[in-house]
Known about the structure:
With 189 residues, the protein is of the alpha+beta class. Helices cover 39% and strands 16% of the residues. The chain is built from seven helices and five strands, in the order H-E-H-E-H-H-E-H-E-H-E-H. It has helices at residues 3-9, 23-33, 54-69, 75-83, 106-126, 142-147, 177-180, and strands spanning 16-17, 45-51, 90-96, 130-134, 156-165. Helix 2 runs antiparallel to helix 5 and helix 3 packs across helix 4 (75-83). It starts with a helix and ends in a 9-residue tail after the last helix. The relative contact order is 0.22. The chain binds flavin mononucleotide.
Amino acid sequence: MDAMQLLHTRYSALKLGEPAPSAQALRAILESAAHVPDHGRLQPWRLILIVKDARLSLGDVLAEGLSRRNPLANEQTLARERQKALRAPLIIVVATRCDKSAKIPVIEQILSAGCAALSIMQGGFAQGLGAMWRIGDPAYDNTVKSALGIEVDDLIVGFIYVGTEIGDPGTRPRRSVDEFAEHWAGGRA
Length: 189
Ligand SMILES: Cc1cc2nc3c(=O)[nH]c(=O)nc-3n(C[C@H](O)[C@H](O)[C@H](O)COP(=O)(O)O)c2cc1C
């Protein structure tokens, strides 16, 4: 796929299924994360890959997290939470690995990790795969982070679900460039 075509057509899948990316496709997806902008060469992100039965364990972790956050959550709600881990054959958790002692502000490190998440999405799309980016409450739950081996001070910037797109991609309104881009004429207010 031509690079501009990728940038101008990428969208999130609404529904994903098997098959998972091949080992080669996965490698190419992960490689794209290594090429994101990174102030200070800190490489302030890490990726945690969850496949096969490990997704069931993630489902348990999500459900346990939800029942701790909301002790009133009923079985049906917890089952729905558990099911989220089975939304795709591959989940890539993108987390920061911030160095607070570095001269580079933490926000810049977080943005770099966010770029890694987008590159993963694009790396999947470029290879004909579907991907969706979710964060949600589990990302801010320290028990979820701890189960995934993520430090409390670090952030989950995305659960990136990757697989084969199923069904209708739907439509999304895209803003016209003229609505969000303007030239600054210089001068002072
Ligand atoms: C940082 C980030 C977090 C997101 N988290 C969620 C989420 O938790 N739940 C959700 O439904 N959409 C979430 N989204 C939005 C979708 O991933 C997606 O971008 C949106 O539905 C628009 O679709 P598009 O990517 O095709 O434009 C998130 C997007 C970003 C950038």
